[in-house]
Design brief:
With 340 residues, this protein is an alpha/beta fold. 42% of the residues lie in helices and 9% in strands. The protein folds into 2 domains: 231 residues, 3-Layer(aba) Sandwich (Rossmann fold); 87 residues.
């Protein structure tokens, strides 16, 4: 039997065609939240009308007391990393600072000076929102034109990883800013609940494993994870990254589960769309500009959902702004009988 790492996009496409359709009625044992109407005062999202929010596959938990109950049909929980498991400003701040330092180290070696802010921006901006190793190649191309010498993406990527390691150590030693403090609100409770019920939890991210795994370890999260189900896109060059369904289909393949049996936690429109396209259920806590992120996902779903009616539609529940993952609840554990 072929290993997941040998899967090609063609094979994943074949896998996606073989996935069993989701019966949305099976969601009856999940508290999906409010379905907004034009008169629903509970939904307040700037720039979006009530009708915009009334999109198939969507439900909302706007109030802190609302909860999403995980149903027994869920066999695994899959987490995005940046913004979902760890706070985006922490991970992205470290990522960008490390790149600036790596760029400057090459500039000093070749030009004998540091680059100006505008030069760094010219190198870096074209690489935004790309996977890390691809980002390194794009930045290296721009840097080469500035320093007048070929800069290899692999060299820049290696220097970036060194700087990430240095920053992680520096934050912990000098500022006491441990990754423990960067874990998103409610995430540890979610992980504890899943572990107590033997529900495997895995990571699915476009972030490089060389960057993500040290942060998971430093944050004390490694012990919670079912590593056989982890998917780091940079380890699988033959699959397409999010927003394509490939990463989540690969997770299902590795765990031997159907998409209807996984619950995906996401914070970006790109990630949520990937999970929906795979046919998974999604709990969605938009990060950054909440309204813009949600608007982006709603627009894309409205364009595509008619094509999913006879395919593998997932379902997404948008959580309250301030509750983190604390709105996610598990079934009660069975009571251990006491001795007479």
């Amino acid at each position: 039997m072929e290993s997941p790492t040998d899967l090609t996009s063609h094979k994943l496409k074949k896998l996606s065609d073989e996935v069993k359709p989701i019966d949305l009625a099976s969601g009856k044992d999940v508290t999906l939240g409010h379905r907004p109407t034009t008169h629903d005062p509970a939904i307040h999202i700037r720039g979006l009308s009530r009708l915009d929010l009334n999109v198939p596959l969507f439900s909302y938990l706007p109030a802190p007391g609302d909860t999403f109950q995980i149903c027994p049909s869920i066999k695994a929980i899959i987490l995005d990393f940046d913004g979902t498991t760890m706070k985006f400003d922490y991970t992205e701040g470290m990522r960008q600072k490390a790149y600036r330092r790596a760029i400057q180290s090459i500039a000093i070696e070749t030009l004998g000076r540091k680059l100006s802010r505008s030069e760094i921006i010219a190198c870096h901006n074209p690489a935004i929102n790309r996977p890390e190793e691809e980002m390194a190649e794009v930045i290296a191309t721009g840097l080469s034109s500035i320093v007048g010498k070929t800069v290899h993406g692999a060299d820049l990527f290696g220097r970036w990883l060194e700087q990430c390691e240095h920053l992680l150590t520096h934050h912990q030693q000098r500022y006491g800013r441990s990754p423990h403090s960067a874990i998103v609100k409610g995430m540890r409770s979610l992980l504890d609940g899943a572990n107590a019920r033997n529900i495997p939890v895995s990571i699915c991210t476009a972030g490089a494993h060389q960057f993500v795994e040290p942060l998971l370890k430093a944050g004390g999260l490694t012990k919670y994870l079912h590593h056989a189900g982890n998917v780091f896109v940079n380890r699988h060059p033959d699959i397409r990254s999010k927003p394509h369904a490939d990463p989540y289909l690969l997770v299902c393949r590795k765990l031997n589960l159907q998409p209807s049996e996984i619950l995906v936690a996401e914070d970006s429109a790109t990630g949520a769309l990937a999970a929906l396209r795979a046919g998974a259920r999604v709990i969605f806590q938009p990060s950054g500009n909440r309204e813009q992120t949600l608007r982006s996902l709603l627009w894309q779903v409205k364009q595509e959902h008619s094509e999913w009616i006879h395919g593998r539609p997932g379902a997404v529940t948008v959580l309250s702004r301030d509750q983190g993952w604390n709105q996610v609840k598990f079934p009660s554990l069975p009571q251990t009988p006491s001795n007479p």
